[in-house]
Amino acid sequence: MAEIKDKSIEVFLGELASMSATPGGGSAAALMGAQAAALVSMVCNLTIGKPKYAAVAEDMKILLMRSETLRLELLEMIKADVDVFNKLMNCYGLVKATDEEKAERSLQIQAVLKEATLVPLACAKACSGVLLLSKEAAEKGNVNVVSDAGVAVMSAYAGLKSAALNVYINAGSLKDRDFAEEQLENLGLVMKGAEVSTEEIYQLVKEKL
Amino acid sequence: MAEIKDKSIEVFLGELASMSATPGGGSAAALMGAQAAALVSMVCNLTIGKPKYAAVAEDMKILLMRSETLRLELLEMIKADVDVFNKLMNCYGLVKATDEEKAERSLQIQAVLKEATLVPLACAKACSGVLLLSKEAAEKGNVNVVSDAGVAVMSAYAGLKSAALNVYINAGSLKDRDFAEEQLENLGLVMKGAEVSTEEIYQLVKEKL
Question: For residue B166, which residues of chain A lie inside 8 Å, CB to CB?
């Protein structure tokens, strides 16, 4: 089967809408993050090389490297969400006729649930990274494309809040509460201040329009 | 050239990131709206036909028709943004050697700017429509996929706020201030309460996880 990133937008959206459990919100979160990173890159690419913005060209080149790294990471995460979901479904499908099988099945489910907690947490972290980059794009980038930095921040924020939902679900099903609490704490750190920053960056963009 | 919706996600994101002015934030806004609508449809499709949700099956069928209509509308808007941008660029490229040519060029620019204000306004309206639908999906849909309704609301909200930026820009360049103010007022109505609703729907989803 073709990877999601190789599918057309129309086909992807059709599959998202369908009654198939994948792709779902986790892939959509990663796509929003990747799209946000792409928009930061666009602002950089339309700033670097312009005489008017020569003073920030070096900053924009570094910003571009960062946004492109996150873009590629988030593009891979579109698939990672589907992979870990399928892995989890396979575990739930394991036979549980004997007590031994039940115990083994439960162990495997719990192991994959840890993974299913870490995958959206990584997505949330990457989206939060893009959110920070969108601020620099809005502050220093070519003012003619500042609205694209504004779309980037909204897209990154939506990706972050969306990925968080999948962390909450899977962490909630974990028996290893120490691990779960640790990951929820990590998520809390990632999300801290995101709403305020998003609003600030959006307002900065609006003032520059 | 292939339409954006027919391009793969990877190719689309690469073009978004590139130094080409299109696709840009307007297409990204429409994609977020379309994705949000697709997620509402997904919740409906995974609710209709389940015995446990028989009581809401009819509501879910109506919701699905609405979300699918908006999904297709927003899918077309990915392209509409590029089309109107190109039209505007063509106008800016018109010769302006004589006073007559200057006047004609200005008239044409202003006419297309009106269109370039209405296109993202329509996108904002459609995103706001999806936002409302995501509430019903969160309230009545299969609780196993309630997180997808949560991703839908964040995606719709990001699409709405992103489309708004393009309304602000283009309305700001309009000489016909009555028309501009009217559209900004329309946008204000569309955006009214969106932030509060988004937060409420997101919290509702979180409590149901």
Answer: 147
B24 to chain A: which residues are within 8 Å by CB?
Answer: 39, 42, 145, 148, 151
Distance from CA of A129 to the nearest CA of B (A): 17
| ipTM > 0.90, yes or no | yes
pLDDT digits (tens, 9 = 90+) for B68-112: 999 999 999 999 999 999 999 999 999 999 999 999 999 999 999
d(CA B180, CA B164): 13
Q: State how far the Cα of A150 lies from the Cα of B18, in Å rounded to an integer.
A: 17
Q: How far apart are CA A120 and CA A77, in angstroms?
A: 8
Q: Is B84 on the interface with A (CB under 8 A)?
A: no
* The CA-based dihedral angle spanning residues A95, A99, A104, A109, taken in that order and rounded to the nearest 10 degrees: 70
Residue A60's identity, in one-letter code, is M
User: Which chain B residues are within 8 Å of A41, Cβ to Cβ?
Assistant: 16-18
**Whole-number Å distance between alpha carbons of B20 and A97:** 59
> Whole-angstrom Cα distance, residue A131 to residue A138?
11
Contact, B205 vs A162, CB < 8 A?
no
Instruction: Count the helix, strand and coil residues of chain A and give each as a percent rounded to the nearest 5.
Output: 85, 0, 15
pTM assigned to the model: 0.97
Q: Do residues A172 and A114 lie in contact, with contact meaning Cβ atoms separated by under 8 Å?
A: no
Q: What is the pLDDT of residues A86-102, one digit of tens each?
A: 999 999 999 999 999 99
Distance CA B76, CA B87 (A): 17
* Cβ-proximal residues to B99 (8 Å cutoff; 6+ apart), any chain: none
